[in-house]
Amino acid sequence: MPDLAVANTYSDNVSVLLHLFPDCNGNGILDACDIDCGPAGGPCDVPGCGQSADCNGNRLPDECEAITPGDFDADGQVDLDDFAAFATYVAGPGEAPLASPECLDAVLTAFDFNGDGDVDLADFATFQAAFTGP
Ligand SMILES: [Ca+2]
Ligand SMILES: [Ca+2]
Ligand SMILES: [Ca+2]
Ligand SMILES: [Ca+2]
After folding, report:
1. For residue 82, with 0-12 CB atoms within 10 Å meaning exposed, 13-18 middle and 19 or more buried, which class applies?
2. Which ligand number lies closest to the CA of residue 54?
3. Which residues contact 101 (CB under 8 A, 6 or more apart)?
4. How do residues 88-125 score in pLDDT, each as one tens digit?
5. β-strand partners of 71
6. pTM score, two decimals?
7. Among all ligands shown, which has an atom nearest to the Cα of 59?
């Protein structure tokens, strides 16, 4: 016999997710499911799930966001959240940022201010100048 309590929990989750995370990229897949397929048999276990990167970890598919220099979480400000991310990805001069391959472009867009392929203290100087406050 199916576990109705579990089924109801899933449908509740789907309606909550639909409200919080619409289909911003218009591919017919809930944005949360674009990012993560979730458990097998769960509401996000659908064909095409898990195809979107969420490098800034805000649960929105990154292709729906405008990541700009300094603004990694695409909230329109260069603030402490972005600084925390910068600190996560900064590496030495000439070294690739400490990012997964799928996130490399997003990290470089946000933090490689001088466009030399690394995120280092030279970039930090520019980041500081772009800082708009906490
Ligand atoms: Ca979608
Ligand atoms: Ca995102
Ligand atoms: Ca930001
Ligand atoms: Ca750089």
Report:
1. buried
2. 2
3. none
4. 999 989 999 989 999 999 999 999 999 999 999 999 99
5. 68
6. 0.79
7. 2
